[in-house]
Amino acid sequence: MALFINPCYYKSKMDNAGLGDYYTKIADACPIPISMYNMPANTGVDLSVELVVKMAQHPNIAAVKDSSGNVAKMGEIVRSVRPDFQVIAGSAGFLYPALCIGAIGGVLALANIAPQQCCDILDYFRHGKHEDAKQLQLRMIAPNTAVTAKFGVPGLKAAMEMVGMYGGNPRSPMLPLNADQKETLRGILKGAGIVS
Question: The whole model's pTM is what?
């Protein structure tokens, strides 16, 4: 499956008609199924329920990855689309609630540094261990926020280094975390049990 984020320039023209045409043309031309990607925090454009439901009728549009965090909206999409259309959580910060309303899983930045914890939330949910899923979800909120909204890509790269992987430096104009930021991040990851 190929993941396509919506255009985000000329925001006033990014309406349902224009975005519908955009996704239809991609789906018609793509040799593999596609997923729409709703990431309003970065694009400034929030795909509407109406648009996603309409696009879900296209046989080559198989999913939507939603990073908005609007679980009620995700639930409305789940309720309104065909049974095989996949709704995917776009952040570990709301993975468990998204699963509870019908999301099938997640594509998560946090999984780069805490893959087992992300898989465990899904596994607990699937096996009806809702209290375990809830407690782990609550523990993962702070590290997820740290590597997304708080420190962003530089934080994720620094966190990757902290768990023993190669993170490297972010692309310009983003700057690597400074020493104080790294110390704060390490404390968050330690508190969540991701690093010792």
Answer: 0.94
